[in-house]
Amino acid sequence: MVTLTSRVIGTLVASILVAIASAPVPASAFYIPGLTPTVYKDNDRLPLYVNKIYSKKSPLDYSYADLPFVCSPPKDAKKAWLNLGEVLRGDRISSSNYELIVGKDEKCKTLCTKTVAAEDAALAKDFISNEYSVEWIVDNLPAATRYSVGDKTDKKRKQYEAGFALGKMKYGKININNHVTIRILYQVQPGHPDGKLIVGFEVYPLSILGESCPDEGKLLDFQPLIEKTTDITYTYSVLWLEDKDVTWSTRWNLYLVNTDTQVHWYSIVNSMVIMLFLTGMVAIIIMRTLNKDIALYNEEEMKDEHDDTTGWKLVHGDVFRTPKYSSLLCCLLGSGVQILAMALTTILFALVGVLNPSYRGGFVSFGLFLFVFAGCFAGYYSARLYKVFKGTSWTKNAILTGTLVPGFLMTIVFLLNLFVWSQNSSNAIPFGTFFALVVMWFGISLPLNLAGAYFGQRKAVIEHPGRTNQIPRQIPEPVWYLRPYFAMAMGGLLPFAVIFIELFFILKSIWEGQYYYMFGFLSLVFMILLVTCVEMTIVIVYFQLCDEDYNWWWRSFLASAFSAVYIFVYSMIYFFKQLSIDHFVPGLIYFANSFMICTAYGLLTGTAGFISTYWFVRRIYSAVKID
């Protein structure tokens, strides 16, 4: 045991070192939770980083520094160290040749004159027609354009839309924005008049012809993109403005879209009503019907009449019979426990403020690392259930648990990445990052899975009340509403009804570039979802057992997991109603990612339903006297 433990620890440490080397952490110039704000003084150089271009019409992002029609980065440009989440979301952060000197305004300063070939101009026109926006970063703030919200009866307030347009359509021509006015908003550091804190980064683009400066009130010619080689001059202006209304601690509030919280509360109330309805059903089953059944079955004078009765007790000799494909069920449930542990921990981190929108890539990074380290829970639970099913090779089951679902998802990611590579998008996963993912899988998750399975198989087998008959009991023809497909469809409907309103905002944050920050609502909806899955599955399995159908193992997993099918259908409706994606590869990316998300969601909800139902079935059969 000591040798096995030392090998596991050694493999774990080595794998962590390789993963850290392959997937570096953010540089200190960027926001990490807990760091104090950066204080700038007059004449200090404020670095401006260029990141990527992105669009609501396409999930394909492109590195801004690699665009052939913009000014090339300086020769000494440095690529920022990115965390794993930043790489996977398509970030490619690089230093630029924009010179921002603290406290110094600039008027129409020339950045460069770029010779743009005809094919590069055609590429720029394609990006602009698809409404691509540019993301730059200053002091960890993304560039934003300003707009006002409110009406005449309500005081108008400032709001930010992240990014700025790469170009625009005007008078039937596509024009590129080759001039930007950069507004840096600052706040004087309390107690230090010479110190400045950056509280806003606004960029207002213009398309101007030649090297003319955009004077206020003067109509300028636009810089069109034409089908021949042309020279485009890029210029910029810088304004430093003191903003006394925004503080450093509240500067991100302007980026968060003020959705009506009443909609979220409506979602919570809707979910609560469904949950309370199910709670009432479960209470009636347990407190009335079930107690009455148990009292009836336990009456001594009724023993001789049990063979003539009907109900769930009649299948006591078959209810714990090992199901078909029991090893596969163990693997799926192990992965479900792993995803459930990851989801609960990630939401907890988000709820306490560690994972906030300013921590770029934090959600993905934390989620992946928590999933990897939750492999021990997957191996433990899968091994315990495998022992219940009288499995003979716990190591084979542990390896299958650690490779089946992750391998399936990794295969999809690899194949999808080939299509993304063909588009030269920054969303393509680099070889080093892909290698880091594989190392995390085989070097950390799988060994932890084996370690969890080792301790799980050493535990005493879970005892079941009563013995299993050697000859399976014949199952009567079920009533129409208890047929497997109908029961699963009904079992997944209510969990979907609990989350479909909040699901709309989650999809907008994923596919339309909005920041999601309603983590309090998300945690409430998630807990209600779990309770709904538990109660719905218990009700379905109870009625199934009352109908003398003892094949409940897979039904308890698939009933609540079926809500993933409804979510996938909803994502299809969202695709055609909300998005404007009309190319093959972007559409493939959308549906492949939606399928993987729904797979993980189905495993999570199915596992929650199975664990609770397994406990319920053992409890009710241990409460009756069985010969």
TrEMBL record:
Stretch forming the signal peptide: 1-29
One Pfam family per UniProt: EMP70
Transmembrane segments: 263-286, 328-351, 363-386, 398-422, 428-450, 485-507, 519-545, 557-576, 588-617
GO cellular component, one term: membrane
Compartments, record wording: Golgi apparatus; Membrane
Biological processes per GO annotation: protein localization to membrane
Descriptive protein name: Transmembrane 9 superfamily member
Source organism (scientific name): Linnemannia gamsii
